[in-house]
Structures are given as structure tokens and as C-alpha cells.
Prior knowledge:
Blueprint: E1 5-10, H1 14-25, E2 30-34, E3 45-46, E4 55-56, H2 63-67, H3 69-72, E5 83-84, E6 88-93, E7 99-102, H4 106-111, H5 117-129, H6 131-138, H7 148-158, H8 162-165, H9 172-182, H10 194-207, E8 212-213, H11 218-230, E9 234-237, E10 250-255, H12 259-266, H13 272-279, E11 286-294, E12 308-313, H14 317-328, E13 338-341, E14 356-364, H15 373-383, E15 391-397, H16 399-405, E16 442-444, H17 458-471
Parallel strand pairs: 1-2, 1-10, 2-9, 6-12, 10-16
Antiparallel strand pairs: 3-4, 5-8, 6-7, 11-14, 11-15, 12-13, 13-14
Helix pairs in contact: 1-11, 1-17, 5-10, 7-10, 9-10, 9-14
Amino acid sequence: MDATYDAVVVGAGPNGLSAAIVLQKHGLNVLLIEGKETIGGGMRTMELTLPGFKHDVCSAIHPMAAAAPFFKTLPLEEYGLEYIHPLTPAGHPLPDGTVASLHRSLSETADQLGRDRKTYINLLKPLVEHWEGLASDFLSPLKIPSNPIKLARFGLSALQPATMLAKKFKETKTRALWAGMAAHGIQPLTNITTSAIGMVLMAAGHHVGWPMLKGGSQSLANALADYFESLGGKIEKGKMITDFGQIPDAKMVMFDLSPKNLLQIAGGKFSSLYRWQLNRYRYGMGVFKMDFALSQPIPWQSKELKGAGTVHLGGTLEDISNSERLTWEGKYTDNPYVLLAQQSLFDTTRSPEGFHTGWAYCHVPSGSEVDMSTVIENQIEKYAPGFKETIIGKHTFNTKEIEDYNPNYIGGDINAGVQDWSQLFTRPAVRISPYRTSNKNIYICSASTPPGGGVHGMGGYYAAKRAIQDLF
């Protein structure tokens, strides 16, 4: 019997959408299936608190979407996508009242860092200047690099634990700024390769900024979906796949799912070795997420933070390193590392006139159902006295609720698996191609494949390229 489709992609997150676009552009007949009534995965925007307040459910600030090679090749602006750049990409207040900021300008950022000015420039300038050439190497599976010398220079620093690289810096504020960046990796800062995420995020900020999306993260999902459909692709929403038999006949099937969910749906079609490998895949810490409807902008003590799209809270390098270590060990702290975004300061579509939104989360042990609301609010209040009085509505997600919302976030892990040295390039299993399964007609393209978590679509891009090479 002839296949109904050339390819079916299950899951319409950034990677599933990217894979579907690559396959459709190759001339294939592609069906994209999404379990929810809206597409997007981690790129959804909803009225979680009060009517008229638009909150990003997961991803909120998008340096990697703006900087990733694949999205740049797509005419997404024609489908309503608009990036908004805050005055300052990111700010990091310290207990003594000072603030370290990531500015779009490399030199402006370095100028505030005192004795670390030259060290910061020497660390980041090569990556910023050669971003276009290097991004295709570090946002990819293991391969022969196109820029081996420049990549090697990046790798020498990127492979270090963030705490080790921090020894290059003399100023407390530089070390704190660095810790806030590296902690995006959702693992102890003493782990090998934790410097990579800090360097990439800082360099992306200098290269393209840390923009948000007008109207919310949903606008990127909608633009990708509209472009896919303009190519002739088909999207079926509201069909949660729980068994392989629900999938229409196709020459190949690609899953934008975690290994755990892939096993539940298609495990019977895999070899015992591949099932064993997927069962050994490790998930990391979870997050406790809060969204706020506010009567006014967050009343930061430091005026520098009033122009920042993103704010990292948690204190010094030592404070953040300690809180991440405790969380990794399954413990809790009253001084957590908190990521906060204030999109409504720059995007008036996010809230009714005169009102504002707040977006924040902290890391928690995997599977935690502990309510961290008071802890997060206290952490914000510490740097913005009077913040609690501005709250007129709020919504929370613990790790179980996050996983219920998106089954790929196992235990609340929004990176879909630990991105440490043992899983950075081999996720989800050690194979010639990480996107191939043991079944020649089934592929995986989620954030559980290289280059890992983040809204960049590169996992889907590379998985689709591999499938085309193998099957078509």
C-alpha cells in the first residue's frame, strides 16, 4: 500500500516545525501533528493571570532564535514575526546595590567591569566577530568543523566549569554577571562545559541582542506554521499521539518528543540496545514558574534594571553556585537563582494600558511539587521594594504541572535532558547520527538531540537533513 504521506512529524515545537519546513521545502508531502489545540511547544503565549495580560508559558527571551542559522534563512517577517529589543539585554543586581549589565555593545559591557575589561573582551571578542562562521559548528551535532582553529579556541574556554573560568575575573560584579549567564545551563556551575552556555549567551547578546517577540513567543510558532502551510504542508492539531498506530502511513516519521515519550509510543519498533540507551537518558533539574499581572512596572531600586529585558537575581557567583548545587542535590534554598523577564516594558501588546506583566522562574529538584511562590516573590522584593504591592494577579507552575502542560518536560526539565559533557553531543544515545533511531524509518528531532535546549530549531533542521540523505 502506498504511504499517505512522505513524512509525518509528531510535535510542533520549534524543532518539529523546523523539521517539517525542511522536509516540505525538499518537495515532500508532510503532515505535522500536534497534541495540543495550539502549536508551539515551548513557544506559547496565554492569558494565564487576568484577561488582557499575555504571558509566555515557557520561552520568553530569544537570543538564539535571532542568532540561529536556520531561522535566518526563512522569510518569517512576512508572516508577522517582529523582534523587539529592550534598551539593555540583561541586568544583574548585587546585594551591595551595584548592577552588572549585558549591553548590546561589547565595549560598553566591558567598560563597566573595571579590572576585567581586557579579560572580558579577549574572551568574547573572537566569538562575537566570528559568530556567523562558528554558530554552524557549535549549534550542530559532532562533525568536522568548518572553522577548526577558531572553534578550538572557543572550546578551550567552553569546556571549563563556569567556576573555573570565573577565576579569570577579579571583579565581584563580573563574576556575578558571568554566573547568571552560565546558570542558564540548569546544572551545577562546577560541571565541565558549563562555560559554554555562558559564552554563547553573552556572544549572542553582543551579536544580535536578547530580543523578545512582539505579541509573545507564540508569534514565532505561528510564523513558522504559516510559512510551512504556505509551502503546502498540513498541520493537524488536537491529536495527542500515544500509540504508533495513530500515525498515518508514511515513508518516515520524525518525533519532536523526549526519549521517554518516544519509548512509550514507538518502543516496540526499536532494538533492545536502543531501548536500553533511551532508558538511560538522564533528565535534569526542573523549574518552578510564575507569571504576574502588575499594576505598574517592577519598582527596581537600581534604575539600570528598568531598561533591562531580562534580570538575573541570586547575588554573587558564590551565591548562585551554591544555590544551583543545592538544587542539584535535591535541596531548597531561600536565595535561589531567579530568571525574570519584563516584556511589557517594551511590548505594549502584552498588557492593558497602564498595567504590566512579569515572568519568572527558579530551578528546583526534578519532580518537585514544593510551592516556591513566596521565595521567588521575596527574591524580587529584595531588589525591588514594594514589588509585592504591585501584584494584582499571578499564576504558578510546579514541575508536575509543567510536565502535564508539556509531556516533553520530564520532571519539569525545560532543557529536555541534562546538557552536561556526557550528553552534550551524544543526546539521546551514542550513535553515528543522534537523530537516527534503530528503526530506519523513525527519527528523533527534539531538544533531546544536539544542540540541545533553546528556541533555535537546529535539532529539527539537522534531523530532517539526515532523514533526507538517508531515505530520499
